[in-house]
Amino acid sequence: MWLYSPVMMCCRMQTSGMMMFASRPPPDADSAVRSTDSDAAQARLSAVRKGYLADPYVNLLVPRSHLVPARPPLINIGTYVRSEALDALVEGWLEAGDGVKQVVSLGAGSDTRFWRIMAGPLKDRVSQYVELDFPEITTHKAQAIRKHKELHSILGPDVKLEKGGTALISPQYSLLPVDLRIAPSESLAPLLDSLSPHIPTLFLAECVLVYMPPSASNALLQWFSDNFDCVGGICYEMFGLEDRFGQVMRENLKARNVSLPGADAYPTLASHTARFQNHAFAHANALTLKTIRQSYISPAELERISRLEMLDEIEELELVLDHYAISWGAKLPPDSEAGDLARVVGDLRGWGLAAKT
Ligand SMILES: C[S@@+](CC[C@H](N)C(=O)[O-])C[C@H]1O[C@@H](n2cnc3c(N)ncnc32)[C@H](O)[C@@H]1O
């Protein structure tokens, strides 16, 4: 999920949402949070179909993908900006320095990033890629991986389903069921069997931490900081929800039984940067999607996407994009053999998405 503008929520309530709530009791809070994965995957599918993004895998992970309606232009553009920036950050991390890296995706949902990386020039840079989510989500994803050759052929022949079908393990990629609110010393301990503390490790939290209390998300950051010599993190989520826009977003989410217990603790970009710094990720930064669109997407790309669909409401687009932040940070070893990594953690430019001049 990424956008909760009044426009989008209006569309949603007019379609399946209202009918579902009328005929069934409200879903429990965790199932409502899990349902945000469909929002994210369907938004990505829409952006791919309209030509904003290239992703040959997303339709394999969206059930009945042929029935998914197109999202409004505002959502497609937001999905595009988010995706381009996150890809640039992840690719910047993988490219930096010599040697392989590890990636852990928290609340990965139906994300296709692993397959997209494996289809590109950075595939040999990944020694381990781990995805974590609730068991209901990992079961569904494991089944989709098993079903589609395009997904499982990339994993090689040595693929095992474990834990009653909720986990999928292969030499390079693992999909594991975890409730990320549980103390990481317990919930993430199995990761230490397959990940090396000495290989540079990146964690991704794309629209995930906001759904859990700050104590739980802070414990996750601290766990990565404590367990890896060289570690980076990237977070993406909504923020600054104290205004009218935020109030409408929260009301709309409440109607779906979704709350944002992580939002109030990080109301500003500075607080998102400080979240990393508080856990020894000394090199940290944060930007809004609005700034990224204005200052980091090339004029040629902006021109290309402007031709895909008509967008009347630039002001509304900017208002929405201004409520989503991408933040990142890195904890590097004191001797800097990791000099190359230090060079890339300064800002998004260094990570690969060039600022416009
Ligand atoms: C908005 S979706 C984002 C999915 C994916 N990261 C993306 O951006 O496409 C949020 C995901 O976080 C997962 N999630 C939220 N809270 C979680 C928790 N406590 N434990 C495990 N997964 C969680 C949800 O199940 C869902 O798949």
From TrEMBL:
The keyword Ribosomal protein does not apply. One of its GO terms (biological process) is methylation. InterPro entries: LCMT1, Ppm1/Ppm2/Tcmp, SAM-dependent_MTases_sf. It is an enzyme of class 2 (transferase). It catalyses: [phosphatase 2A protein]-C-terminal L-leucine + S-adenosyl-L-methionine = [phosphatase 2A protein]-C-terminal L-leucine methyl ester + S-adenosyl-L-homocysteine. Its EC number is 2.1.1.233. It comes from the Eukaryota. Pfam families: LCM. One of its GO terms (molecular function) is protein C-terminal leucine carboxyl O-methyltransferase activity. Keywords: Methyltransferase, S-adenosyl-L-methionine, Transferase. S-adenosyl-L-methionine binds at R82, G107, D179, L180, E206. Belongs to the methyltransferase superfamily. LCMT family. Methylates the carboxyl group of the C-terminal leucine residue of protein phosphatase 2A catalytic subunits to form alpha-leucine ester residues. This is Leucine carboxyl methyltransferase 1.
